[in-house]
Amino acid sequence: MDLTGRTIVITGAGRGFGRALALEAGRSGARVFLSARTLAAARRVADEVATDSGAEAAAFACDLADPDSVRAFADAVAARTDRVDVLVNNGARYLHGPDLWDAEDDAITDTIASGATGTILTVKHFLPLLRASAGADVVNLVSSAAEPRDLRSQAHPAFHAAKAAQAGFADVLSHRLRPEGVRVISLYPPDFTDGDPLAAAWDDAPRTAHDPLTARSVLDCVLFAIGQPRNCYIRSFHFERTQPTKNP
Predict the structure, then answer these.
(1) If you write DSSP's letter for every residue of 87-134 in order, what string do you get?
(2) What's the angle, vertex CA 130, arms to CA 129 and CA 133, rounded to 5?
(3) Strands 137-141 and 86-89
(4) Cα 132 versus chain centre, distance
(5) Which of 5, 63, 221, 225 is an S-S bond match for 234, by CB 3.0 to 4.6 Å?
(6) Burial 90-109, CB ≥16 within 10 A → b, else e
(7) Which domains does the chain have, with CATH numbers?
(8) Taking a C-beta distance cutoff of 8 angstroms, is the pair 27, 3 a contact?
(9) What are phi and psi of 238, to 5 degrees?
């Protein structure tokens, strides 16, 4: 997909899916602003993007659980660009453990703050830049944990709560920003395989109904949605889980 001339902001881009999306955006011609909880992690990926594709990439520290940090991130980006075309809310803390007592209070607070409050504040403080775009997209990497009665995940209840709040925010934001031409797109993937979704082996490997979802497929969904003409509004992606192999 050609993203030449577009400015994309990605939170939680210090590793994993956020890193892969930053690299793919750079290869597609975008100007990339990326954040991670530590500046060192963000700079590693920004340098990787620049080396990989020659794209302009800038790194910022942003702790999504800290309102001051979110505001500072948005202000720093605003000092370098007059608009943002795509904002990807990817960053959020994952918390494992099916029992409430599996996590300390601070971890629970941080999980909800980064996944829910962090998303809301990020959109709030980037909204002026999004409104300055001729056609902006807000992309939310939610989770199947936010879907009603999804009880198969072993994530901590606080993670379910954070993602449910993020999903609810995305729904109302979609309704309220659509008249302005700002699309809000949410993805609800179950757990998907790690590995490098940009590696040739991942692109070429055959995938069947019995294989787990890959990061490459999730990344392709993001690119497909933001690449549609403005009269095509894909509000959400929901994914079926892997089908068990039948006994012969």
Answers:
(1) EEE------B-SSGGGS-HHHHHHHHIIIIIHHHHHHHHHHHHHHTSS
(2) 95
(3) parallel
(4) 21
(5) 225
(6) bbbbebeeeeeeebeeeebe
(7) 7-238 (3.40.50.720)
(8) no
(9) -120, 140
Contact assessment for residue 218 and residue 189, using Cβ atoms and an 8 Å cutoff? yes
Q: Per residue in 44-93, pLDDT tens?
A: 999 999 999 999 999 999 999 999 999 999 999 999 999 999 999 999 99
What is the model's pLDDT at position 212?
A: 81
pTM over 0.90: yes
Place of tokens 């980037």: 126
Is it the case that residue 246 has pLDDT exceeding 60?
no
Residue 65 C-alpha from the chain's centroid? 16
Whether the per-residue pLDDT at 171 is higher than 90: the answer is yes
Which tokens hold the place of 176? Answer: 């309220």
Euclidean distance between CA atoms 92 and 226, whole angstroms: 21
3-state secondary structure of 241: coil
Q: Please tell me the distance from the alpha carbon of residue 179 to that of residue 170, in angstroms, as a whole number.
A: 15
